[in-house]
Write a structure and sequence with these properties.
Layout (H helix, E strand, L loop, with lengths): L6 H24 L11 E10 L4 E6 L5 H8 L2 E3 L7 E10 L4 E8 L7 E5 L6 E5 L2 H18 L11
Antiparallel strand pairs: 1-2, 1-4, 3-7, 4-5, 5-6, 6-7
Length: about 160
C-alpha cells in the first residue's frame, strides 16, 4: 500500500524535526566552553589538592603566573549534564578583582579519561565539566606549589641580620 502524497510530507517533516532535535541535543554536550574567569580578572587563588607523591593534602597561594598552565590542564571542556561520583582531587578558591568569589572543584578520573571539574561563583551554583587532563592538572598544581614555595621569604628570627 502506497502512502498518499499528503501523508508523505508530514512523515518527512516529523523525521527531519526528530533528527534536528537529536543533533541539537548532541551538540550542546560536545561544544567546547570556557567557564573559567579571565586570568586578568583574578586577584588571588588558594589551591588545595591531594598530592599522591607526597601522600597528603597541600594548600598554598597560587602564583598568578602559574594560572595559565592550570587553566590549560582543565581545557578544552564541555558541560557534563550527568556527572558521576568522581574522586575529589582538590579545589581552587579564587577572589576576582571585583571582590566576587569563584570556586573550581577538581576531580581525578581513571587513567585514560579526560579530566573533570565543577566551577561557579559558589558551591551551590556550580556546573560540572569534563575536559583537560587529570595527570596534566596534577603536574600543573605541583609546579605551582613548587613556585609558591620558592617565592616565600623565610621568616627571619627577631634581631637577625637581613
Amino acid at each position: 500500500m502506497k502512502a498518499s502524497p499528503r501523508r508523505r510530507p508530514t512523515w518527512l517533516l516529523a523525521a527531519a524535526v526528530a533528527i534536528a532535535a537529536w543533533i541539537g541535543c548532541r551538540t550542546s554536550r560536545t561544544t567546547a566552553v570556557d567557564p573559567l574567569p579571565a586570568i586578568a580578572e583574578v586577584r588571588s587563588v588558594t589551591a588545595r589538592f591531594f598530592d599522591p607523591d607526597a601522600g597528603r593534602d597541600v594548600q598554598f597561594g597560587v602564583p598568578l603566573d602559574r594560572l595559565p598552565s592550570i587553566y590549560a590542564a582543565l581545557l578544552p571542556a564541555t558541560v557534563d549534564e550527568q556527572p558521576a561520583k568522581w574522586t575529589a582531587l582538590g579545589e581552587l578558591e579564587m577572589t576576582l578583582h571585583d571582590g566576587r568569589p569563584f570556586r573550581i572543584d577538581l576531580y581525578h578520573l581513571r587513567p585514560g579519561e579526560d579530566g573533570a571539574f565543577s566551577a561557579g561563583e559558589t558551591y551551590e551554583r556550580r556546573t560540572y565539566y569534563r575536559g583537560g587532563s587529570s595527570p596534566r592538572l596534577v603536574e600543573a598544581l605541583r609546579e605551582a606549589h613548587a613556585a609558591a614555595s620558592q617565592a616565600r621569604t623565610p621568616i627571619q628570627p627577631q634581631g637577625a641580620p637581613r
